[in-house]
């Protein structure tokens, strides 16, 4: 049983240097953290520390997770960790529309981060089921190491039901529609996660330009 006199000055794992102990614990899947956090206060503090998340990120020890938006859950995302065979509810997304239904978005994984891009928000109102939804340009990023969402650079054009792909470490979004356009959007954008910035491009320009050449322009 953990002593009430336990302090963070105690070794992470008795008998091991702290740097080696940190490396051992950092190799363990996120799915086991809930159990391991009950071992002692030192471990609980460690798993929630920037030191631990930065170490895993630096070593690129990220697991393969399946992200799922559960139906009827008021935009509650969960993640499946196949290594631990566990489902994890993710924290709430810091959006301005927490009580509205989120549809028509796209997702992408880049640089070990999960991106939730664009889409529409509509009221969950059974009395007025055909209310016009509002397209958004918001983009949120989930960091599996820190286990938190944060808002990143927004697209320049609100859009939903659009094409999305990752090429050479950048996120390409193209087409789709929004509430101000009668037809489809002939516009595309490219997101560079290293500088947290979008570049605005004409859709046909991307189609006619090779990925290798265009990559140099972003």
Automatic annotation (TrEMBL):
Keywords assigned by UniProt, alphabetized: Kelch repeat, Repeat
SMART domains associated with the record: Kelch
Residues annotated as domain F-box: 14-49
Gene3D superfamilies: Kelch-type beta propeller (2.120.10.80)
Domain of life: Eukaryota
Database matches in InterPro entries: F-box-like_dom_sf (IPR036047), F-box_dom (IPR001810), Kelch-typ_b-propeller (IPR015915), Kelch_1 (IPR006652)
PANTHER family from the UniProt entry: F-BOX DOMAIN-CONTAINING PROTEIN, OS02G0202900 PROTEIN
UniProt-recorded name of the protein: F-box domain-containing protein
Species the sequence originates in: Datura stramonium (Jimsonweed)
